[in-house]
Amino acid sequence: MSTPRWGRVGADVTDRNAAYGGIQTVIAAALALSLASCAASTSSGLTPSPSAVPTPVPGVARPSSPVRIAITSPYQNEVIHGTTMKVVVTISGGTISRVTTTHISPTVGHVHLLYDNNLILMSYTLTQEVPVHPGENGTLTAEFVASDHFPFNPRDITPPVFFSVQP
């Protein structure tokens, strides 16, 4: 399977920009802004974590969640045409929150989107536009994670959805 042209989360920005142009910088900036807005949000009255992604407490078990997540778009083996793939997920039994906090509720969290098992997006909505390029093939999975961005135990992750991109 091909590596997404927008790079992998955590890859060296200099190497990605040299190899793929400036789209990674735009996505990295958008992700940073999204995380910053999440960390700064206090509309629920919860105290936000001092960092965008808190460190888990060693030896503390992760909670389970009754929430179930599914990808409704793209569908299995869909051929995407163009440069954008609309990703739609549904959840049942829970809600999406913009607040990052260590005060975890098993029914409140965020969506993490993975391309070929690499985190590409941390989202606070159920619909996202993801940049794609003709010739790409891959798998997409989505995970409902706790409000501290760490997974529940057991993980609530969708089966992989395979797709390909053509002009």
Compose a concise summary of this entry.
This protein has 167 residues and is of the alpha+beta class. It is built from 2 helices and 10 strands.
Explain what this protein looks like in three dimensions.
With 167 residues, this protein is of the alpha+beta class. The protein has one domain: Immunoglobulin-like (Sandwich). 16% of the residues lie in helices and 38% in strands. It contains two helices and ten strands; from the N terminus they run ααββββββββββ. It has helices at 13-20, 23-40, and strands at 68-73, 78-81, 84-92, 95-96, 108-115, 118-123, 127-131, 137-146, 151-157, 161-166. Strands 2, 4, 5, 6, 8, 9 and 10 form a seven-stranded mixed β-sheet that branches. A three-stranded antiparallel β-sheet has the order 1-3-7, with no helix packed on it. Strand 8 (137-146) and strand 9 form a beta hairpin. Mean pLDDT is 75; it is low at 1-54.
